Amino acid sequence: MLSENNYLTPRQIVTELDKYIIGQDDAKRNVAIALRNRWRRMNVTSDIKEEIIPNNILMIGATGVGKTEIARRLAKISDAPFTKVEASKFTEVGYVGRDVESMVRDLVEQSVNIVRIKKKEEVMEKATEIVESIILDTLIPPIKETPVRPIQASVELNEEPKSEQELNEKTRERFREKLRNGELDHRKIEVNVKQSNAGGIGMVGGGMMDEASMMNIQEMIGGMLPKKNKKRKVTIADARRILLDDEASKLIDMDEVKEEALRKAENTGIIFIDEIDKIAGGSKRSGGGPDVSREGVQRDLLPIVEGSAVTTKYGIVNTDHILFIAAGAFHFAKPSDLIPELQGRFPIRVELQNLTKNDFLRILKEPKNALSKQYQALFESEGVSLEFQDDALEEIAGIAFDINSEVENIGARRLHTVMSHLLNEFLFDVPDEIPANSKISITRNMVKERLSELVKNKDLSQYIL
After folding, report:
1. Fewer C-beta neighbours within 10 Å, C or N terminus of the chain?
2. Which of 275, 377, 356, 358 shows the shortest CA–CA distance to 61?
3. 343 CB-near residues (< 8 Å, 6+ apart)
C-alpha cells in the first residue's frame, strides 16, 4: 500500500504539471483529483474499497492544446504504467486489425518493464560485484587452492614467502581497484553473449490474430528453443554493460515481477484513448458502412472501460480500476454521438481551451522542456551559445499563432514548424561555418527576415504537420 509520502496531493500534482504544460487549469485540476483518488481508494480499509471505481475523463479540445501531454505527464508523476492508443486504429471484432484488448496487453507490458527496472536497480550492487568477478576471471584466472609452494621472496623487501594463490589474490585485488577506477575500460576481452533464436522465427498471420498475439506466440516458441552463446571481443566498458544486464536479470524473480506488475497495472494503470471522436456516430445515422463499424468499436470498448478480465501472457488483468482518459477534437462529431453506455463511463468532461498568442510565448519560455531550451541544448552540444531576445520570442509566438488562425489550428505543434524553419540554416552550418565557442543571438528582425516567406505563403501546405 502506498504511503502518504509516496503520493502527491492534488495541489502538488498541478504544480508538477505546471512545469511542463501551460494553461488548461481545469483539465489539470480534474486529472489531479483522479490521480489522488487512486491513493485514497487504496487506503480505504472497509469492504467498499473494491466498489470504488475511477472517474474516467473525457478531454475535448483541438489538436496540440496539451491533451496527450497532460496524460503522459500524469503517468510519469505517479510512476504508473501508461499506454496511448488511437481509437481509429481499432476494428470491430471479427475484422482484421487490432482488437481493443490489445491496449490492456500493452499496458501490462509497460507495467512489467517498470517493475523489472525497479527490481534490477535493487540488485544492481550485487550484480556489479558478480560482473567484476567475471571480468577478473577473464583477465587473471583464479588459482585453485593447492599445497603451499613457497615463492622466492624479494630480498630487498624482506618479504615472507607467499603461495601462488596469495600472489594471485593480491594481483586480482589490484586489478579490481583498477577496474573500479575505469583504468582498464579500453582493454578488450572475450565474453559470452547469449543469443535468442526467437528473432529468426517467421509467422504467417491472418484472421483475427493481431500483432500482439503473433508476438506472444513467437516469444513462446523462442523460449522453447535453446539459447546459443556467442563469444564477442569487446572493451571492458562494453563487457560490463552487457554482463550487468544479464546478471541482474538472473538475480530477480520474474514470477514476483509478473505478480507485482499485474497489481500495478490494475490499480495504477492509465490508458489514454485518443481520437475517440473518430469512432463517434452510427446509432443516430442512417445507412450502414463505416458508421456501423464505428459503433461496433464503441461496443467493443465498452466492457473494457466498464471493467472486465483480459487475458495477457503474464496473467489475467481486471480493468475495473484502470483509469481511462479519452480525448478528441470533436470538430465534426459531438460527445453525445457516442453510444449512451460509453458516454456514461466518462463522467468527467473537460473542455480544453485553444491556445492564445500569449500561451505560445509562455510555451516557448517557461516549461522545463521549452522548445527554446531544447534548441539551446542542441547548439550547446557543439559548443555554440544560442540566445533568444524577448522580442524575438514574441515574434515567433505571433507568427505561429497567425498561421494557425489562417490555415489549420494544430496548436503548440505549430511552434515546432516555425522554430525548425528559423534555425535549420544555423543547424546546417554548425560546426563547419559556425565553429565552437561562437554565439548566435536571435533578434526580432532576424525572425521577420527568415520567416517572411512562411508568412507570405497563404497556402502553407508544405508546412502543415
Report:
1. N
2. 275
3. 335, 336
Rg for the chain (alpha carbons), in Å?
Answer: 29
pLDDT digits 0-9 by tens, 24-66: 999 999 999 999 998 899 899 889 998 999 999 999 999 889 9
Question: Is there a contact between 140 and 165 (Cβ–Cβ < 8 Å)?
Answer: no
User: In whole angstroms, what is the distance from residue 113 CA to residue 110 CA?
Assistant: 5
Domain residue ranges of the chain, discontinuous segments joined by +: 4-111+259-351, 122-257, 357-454
Helix 25-42 / helix 67-78 crossing angle, nearest 10 deg:
30
Residue 328 sits at the vertex; the CA angle it makes with 323 and 330, to the nearest 5 degrees, is: 140
pLDDT in tens, 122-144: 999 999 889 888 888 888 887 77
**What's the residue count for the chain?**
465
Instruction: Say how far apart CA 293 and CA 300 lie, in whole Å.
Output: 10
| Exposure on the CB side of residue 340, measured as CA atoms within 13 A | 1
Architecture of domain 357-454: Orthogonal Bundle (1.10)
DSSP assignment of 422-442: HHHHHHHHTTTTS-TT-EEEE
Check whether the bond before 431 is cis (ω within 30° of 0): yes
C-alpha cell, 451: 520567416
Sort residue 75 into left (φ over 0), alpha (ψ -120 to 50) or beta: alpha
Q: What long-range pairs does 170-174 form, CB within 8 A, spacing at least 24?
A: 171/140, 172/136, 172/140, 172/142
In this prediction, residue 95 carries a pLDDT of 55
Query: CA-CA distances (angstroms) from residue 5 to 1, 30, 32?
Result: 12, 21, 16
CATH fold label, 4-111+259-351 = Rossmann fold (3.40.50)
